[in-house]
C-alpha cells in the first residue's frame, strides 16, 4: 500500500535522495520550511518504513570492481528447500548487488560486480558448487549508461 505523502514530504525525499548528508538547515531552506518540521517529517517517514538506513554510494571503478555482469539463471528446481539454499547462497555472495525472481523463461536475474572476467568465473564456480542450476547466461555490461538510486517521488 502506497504511503500518503504531501508536497513537502516529496520535496524532503527528493533532497534526501540527492544528498542525505546535507544539514537540516540547508534542506529546510531548499524545501521551503524550517528545521523542526523537516526533522519531524523525516522521523515519521523513518518510523513508517518509507526511509531506510543511510548509506554511501561507492564508485566501483575506484575499488577495482570494473566488470558488471547480468546473470540470467534458469532452474528446473522449484522446491522450497532448493529455493532456500539458492537464496542463502546469493545473500552470502557480496558480489551480488541485486537479485530478482522473474516471470517468464528466465527464473532469476542477478547483477554481479567483480574486478574482471576471471573474478566472475570464480564467483560462478563457487555458486554452482553450492546450488544446482539448469542454465546460466552471463552478459557483460560494456557501458553503464544510467544508474540511479533515487526514486521518482
Would you mind describing this structure in some detail?
This protein has 153 residues and is an alpha+beta fold. It has 2 domains: 7-47, Arc Repressor Mutant, subunit A; 61-140, Lrp/AsnC effector binding domain/regulation of amino acid metabolism (RAM) domain (Alpha-Beta Plaits), CATH 3.30.70.920. The chain is built from 5 helices and 4 strands; from the N terminus they run αααβαββαβ. It has a 4-stranded antiparallel β-sheet. α1 (7-18) crosses α2 and α1 crosses α3. The longest helix has 14 residues, at 117-130. The protein starts with 6 loop residues before the first helix and ends in a 13-residue tail after the last strand. The mean pLDDT is 96.
Number of domains: 2
Largest sheet: 4 strands, antiparallel
- This entry's quaternary arrangement is single chain
Order of helices and strands: HHHEHEEHE
Query: Helical residue percent?
Result: 25-40%
Number of strands: 4
- Order of strands, main sheet, comes to 2-3-1-4
First CA to last CA: what distance? 15 Å
Unreliable spans are: none
Instruction: Name the CATH class of the largest domain.
Output: Alpha Beta
CATH architecture of the largest domain: 2-Layer Sandwich
Contiguous helical run count:
5
Strand percentage: 15-25%
Q: What's the CATH superfamily of the largest domain, by name? A: Lrp/AsnC effector binding domain/regulation of amino acid metabolism (RAM) domain
| Rg estimate, integer Å | 20 Å
Organism: Jannaschia aquimarina
InterPro entries: ArsR-like_HTH (IPR011991), AsnC-type_HTH_dom (IPR000485), Dimeric_a/b-barrel (IPR011008), Tscrpt_reg_AsnC-like (IPR019888), Tscrpt_reg_AsnC/Lrp_C (IPR019887), Tscrpt_reg_HTH_AsnC-type_CS (IPR019885), WH-like_DNA-bd_sf (IPR036388), WH_DNA-bd_sf (IPR036390)
Pfam family, one: AsnC_trans_reg
Domain HTH asnC-type: 5-66
Amino acid at each position: 500500500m502506497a504511503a500518503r505523502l504531501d508536497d513537502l514530504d516529496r520535496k524532503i525525499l527528493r533532497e534526501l535522495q540527492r544528498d542525505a548528508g546535507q544539514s537540516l538547515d540547508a534542506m529546510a531552506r531548499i524545501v521551503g520550511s524550517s528545521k523542526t518540521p523537516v526533522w519531524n517529517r523525516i522521523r515519521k517517514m523513518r518510523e513508517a518504513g518509507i526511509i531506510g538506513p543511510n548509506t554511501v554510494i561507492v564508485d566501483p571503478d575506484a575499488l577495482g570492481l570494473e566488470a558488471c555482469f547480468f546473470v540470467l539463471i534458469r532452474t528446473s528446481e522449484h522446491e522450497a528447500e532448493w529455493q532456500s539454499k539458492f537464496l542463502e547462497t546469493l545473500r552470502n555472495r557480496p558480489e551480488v548487488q541485486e537479485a530478482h525472481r522473474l516471470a517468464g523463461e528466465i527464473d532469476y536475474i542477478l547483477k554481479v560486480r567483480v574486478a574482471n572476467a576471471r573474478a566472475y568465473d570464480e564467483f560462478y564456480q563457487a555458486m554452482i558448487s553450492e546450488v544446482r542450476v539448469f542454465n546460466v547466461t552471463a552478459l557483460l555490461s560494456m557501458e553503464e549508461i544510467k544508474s540511479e538510486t533515487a526514486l521518482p517521488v
